[in-house]
Specification:
13 helices, 546 residues, alpha+beta, five-stranded antiparallel sheet, 3 domains, Rossmann fold, 29% helix
């Protein structure tokens, strides 16, 4: 028993001694690793003016570990990207394991840190609703403050993250960063080049409806907001080109889908002057649809849109702005690509408001409105009433068995004014009776033709016609906003949100949309530029990657 106890005691001493040696090894390894981490982080900082290799060596010298530093590797791309890697190792003499023939144990470590931009894809989603034309806390309009801040952001992302706009060279590797500019109000205008590319059967599975080509918006279904894909359906509905705002006695002009070219999405811009050109052209007008801005911004980062985006030419993507776009081959990248990052920056000064759309039966096809154009190119309109199988002629307010056209006698009344602005005008109503004898005939208008000619309020004024317009209200749109925000975050997209003097309702949605509460910014006209700069710094943040 004494011999057995002595044997067990020796084994216990060996085991304990091995533990002591391993603890000494881990202590040395931890010391080396901590020094490596601090050294490469300091050396990789783009604000660091000293030589990166010397910074790492200095950290080890001051820690008394200079003899253990093995290698230092520095990679740079202009002034906008720096990666520093270092390794270190040390031999630890054993106290107890030498009894087993192990005299030394090697403690080693490696670390890599980088700061800058590498294959970064950003969707910059900017509110251009009517309230953006109002004054901000700075005294400028909110639009002007936002434009200045967004251009600084563009410079920081596409040129130089450590110099003011226009100061210094544009030093980021061309093609390393792309920005999708997504202006939004009540709708988002995709622009025909993008819609046609998405609609190309050789490039995409999506089929965009073609009831008109006057404007380029899409009306999404509710289920579309639960996915980062453009749509869950092959059939994507083009938004009707109609005016739900102006009264019946106005010609349409306040379109729910506005078609000014500056409103179009500009996908995958890589040259800062091109992006600034687009930002400078932004104007304010319309309702607010945060959900649609976020929907398009997210969809443009999804690899499913790679074929149509790749098919677009440089001219189509820049809108004719000066400058040469870098090669964007392969974008949007796969979510699993190690060297790429996807970011959304969503800004609004408001909250989701009503979004109008045409009921399905009023989107296309023949309407109850008939147009007759006489030899003087004057238009006459008749409106069909199915319950009486008759036509109401707007020229005289009477009912007829056929629309105003060839071979039918009618009495018309029109207001005729004579005179001049300095003598004054004299107006009277002139009634004339006659028979249509020219070669024209009345033609039944399609619904798209009706909406280009009349407001929906005019259409709804006739008691036998139904209201053609429906709308998504604030509650529905808030729910859709949160759905698409969740879908984006689930895919690994980083979401920053900015409430620019926004109401509490808008701020609440933005806070929930952001990746974390820290990624939401409450901003005003006095600090909007600082907010965009903070986000730019966060995107470019120093990262310990190994």
């Amino acid at each position: 028993m004494i011999l057995f106890a002595l044997f067990i005691l020796i084994l216990m001493l060996w085991a304990g001694g091995m533990g002591v040696d391993l603890m000494r090894l881990e202590n040395q390894r931890t010391t080396l690793q901590n020094t490596l981490d601090r050294a490469v982080l300091a050396a990789a900082d783009l604000d660091q003016t000293e030589d990166a290799r010397l910074v790492v060596e200095d950290y080890f010298a001051k820690a008394g570990l200079a003899a253990y530093l093995d290698t230092v590797t520095v990679e740079t791309t202009g002034a906008a990207f720096k990666r520093v890697s270092a390794t270190a190792s040390a031999d630890v003499n054993t106290l107890f394991m030498n009894m087993l023939g192990v005299d030394r144990i090697k403690a080693g470590g490696a670390a890599t840190a980088e700061e800058g931009i590498s294959e970064l894809e950003i969707s910059l989603i900017l509110d251009v609703s009517g309230s953006m034309g109002e004054p901000s806390a700075s005294g400028n309009t909110k639009l002007k403050d936002m434009q200045d801040a967004a251009k600084e952001f563009s410079w920081s992302m596409l040129c130089n993250p450590h110099s003011a706009l226009g100061n210094g060279n544009c030093s980021i590797e061309p093609g390393s960063v792309s920005i999708n500019l997504v202006p939004y109000s009540e709708q988002v205008s995709a622009g025909e080049p993008l819609l046609r590319a998405i609609d190309d059967p050789d490039l995409s599975r999506f089929d965009i409806s073609e009831e008109h080509f006057v404007s380029s918006c899409v009306t999404f279904d509710q289920e579309d907001f639960a996915t980062r894909l453009l749509s869950v359906s092959d059939d994507v509905k083009r938004t009707g080109h109609f005016d739900p705002w102006w009264p019946s006695y106005y010609s349409p002009g306040s379109w729910t889908c506005r078609n000014e070219s500056w409103r179009d999405i500009r996908p995958y811009v890589g040259h800062h002057s091109n992006l600034n050109y687009q930002i400078n052209n932004l104007r304010a007008g319309g309702n607010t649809s945060i959900d649609l801005g976020m929907k398009w911004g997210t969809a443009l980062l999804d690899p499913s849109l790679r074929p149509p985006i790749q098919s677009m030419t440089v001219l189509e993507r820049t809108g004719g702005a000066t400058g040469t776009e870098p090669d964007m081959t392969g974008r949007p990248y796969d979510y699993t690509r190690d060297t790429s990052s996807k970011v959304v920056v969503l800004m609004t000064d408001g909250m989701d408001t009503a979004q109008h759309y045409l009921k399905p039966q009023y989107r296309s096809g023949p309407s109850p409105i008939w147009r007759y154009v006489d030899s003087n190119n004057k238009d006459y309109y008749s409106i069909y009433r199915a319950s009486t199988d008759s036509y109401y002629f707007t020229g005289d307010g009477n009912w007829y068995s056929e629309p105003y056209g060839r071979g039918t006698s009618y009495t018309t009344t029109e207001r005729v004014c004579r005179g001049s602005w300095w003598r004054g005008y004299r107006c009277e109503y002139v009634t004339s009776t006659g028979t249509v004898t020219d070669g024209s005939i009345a033609v039944q208008m399609t619904y798209p033709e009706v909406w280009e000619t009349f407001t929906t309020d005019w259409y709804d004024d006739w008691s036998w016609l139904s209201n053609p317009v429906a709308y998504f209200d604030t509650a529905e749109k808030d729910a859709q906003t949160l759905q698409i925000c969740d879908a984006a975050k689930a895919a690994g997209i980083t979401v920053y949100t900015i409430g620019f003097e926004a109401p509490p309702e808008g701020d609440t949605i933005l806070k929930r949309c952001a990746t974390t509460p820290a990624f939401y910014f409450d901003s005003n006209g006095l600090n909007i530029a600082e907010t965009f700069a903070t986000i730019a710094t966060s995107i470019n943040k120093l990262r310990l990657v190994q």
